[in-house]
Amino acid sequence: xxxxxQYKKICSGRDYLQEHYTDSFSLSKVAEYSCMSQFHFSRVxxxxxxxxxxxxxxxxxxxxAKKMLITKNLSISDICAEVGYSSVGSFSSLFSEKVGxxxxxxxxxLRSLANDPNCFPMQSIPLCFSxxxxxxxxxxIKK
Length: 143
Prior knowledge:
It is built from eight helices and no strands. By secondary structure, it is mainly alpha-helical.
């Protein structure tokens, strides 16, 4: 059972991670921000949110990278740097492990789905989601 003041500290640490996930990850810095020891912060964070702080940051970075791969025309190395990784190889390996395909395969697959309306029925996708995901304007969607 977690006490209310501990929950507030953990939530402030989670909020800090969400705001600074592109920075180099330092558990000591986040724990200090939350006024807790590293070990205690990590243990309570994992108990409350079901994943470690490192896993949480990795998930945020991969989700941001997935979105950028679809919506931006940046290179893989630029996206790698934008989400906080310094090594393209490490980023690609981690992305492949989490998503099941390389970043370039992911980009090609999602873009091919967007270009083939018979493969991906646009009528079943909310307009705001398709605009965000595929970068379509309202007049470009085929019915």
